[in-house]
Design goal:
With 188 residues, the protein is an alpha+beta fold. It has a domain at 55-168: Beta Barrel (Lipocalin). The chain is 23% helix and 28% strand. The chain has helices spanning 3-25, 28-31, 143-152, 162-168; strands spanning 58-61, 70-80, 85-93, 99-107, 112-120, 123-126, 133-134, 153-154, 157-158. Strands 1, 2, 3, 4, 5, 6 and 7 form a 7-stranded antiparallel beta sheet that branches. Strands 8-9 form a two-stranded antiparallel sheet. A hairpin with a 4-residue loop joins strand 4 and strand 5. The longest helix is centred in the N-terminal third of the chain and has 23 residues, at 3-25. The protein is elongated.
Length: 188
């Protein structure tokens, strides 16, 4: 065997070992990370807003024919979180004109909402009993479902583009339902 043949064999053997070791480094059983395992939800920290809703950026939105309340969202308060939660300030107005202002969050992946706090007597008050609740889609005052389906979520994914959310909240096109799309997923 010639020296050049031996060098080629040794190089090939070395390359094979390197590739085998590189393959093991990405093995989920070796690394302990399974790329197909479900992700565990980890909520980021939530700070209460510093100010009341901005009257110039309050946008009314449609909820249902059965509701007697009026609903609006402060578009300046919409925060698209990296943790998968979209946080916002919502204003609920009763038929007698009383307002309740709430700071909430919506998770699109699980179709849940959370009340972080309320604005009372000129100050934000944190909700100490805040927990995730399933969004109810079949009630008259289904405003979380209306926001999730009509603007904040793209099916079960968080809408990441604030301009798309603001466009969806436009009263001329907002239905409070899932946005119609073509077979390519492009919304109308």
């Amino acid at each position: 065997m010639t020296t050049s043949t031996q060098m080629i064999r040794l190089s090939s053997l070395g390359l094979a070992r390197t590739l085998a070791l590189a393959g093991c480094a990405g093995d989920p059983l070796e690394s302990g990370v399974d790329p197909f395992a479900p992700m565990v939800f980890k909520e980021g920290t939530t700070s209460m807003p510093l100010n009341p809703p901005n009257k110039a950026t309050i946008q009314p939105f449609y909820v249902s024919q059965q509701t007697i309340f009026k609903f609006a969202i402060d578009t300046d308060s919409i925060l698209i979180g990296n943790d998968g939660i979209t946080r916002y300030t919502v204003i609920l107005t009763s038929p007698n004109g009383n307002n309740q202002i709430q700071y909430e969050g919506i998770r699109c992946d699980s179709f849940q909402w959370r009340l972080y706090g309320t604005f009372e007597n000129g100050a934000w008050r944190e909700n100490p009993l805040a927990s995730w609740r399933t969004i109810q889609d079949n009630t008259a005052n289904r405003y979380q479902a209306s926001l999730a389906q009509g603007a904040l979520c793209n099916f079960n994914n968080q809408e990441k583009n604030i301009n798309s959310i603001l466009k969806s909240l436009n009263p001329k096109g907002f239905t409070g339902q899932t946005k119609p799309s073509n077979s390519f997923g492009v919304t109308y």
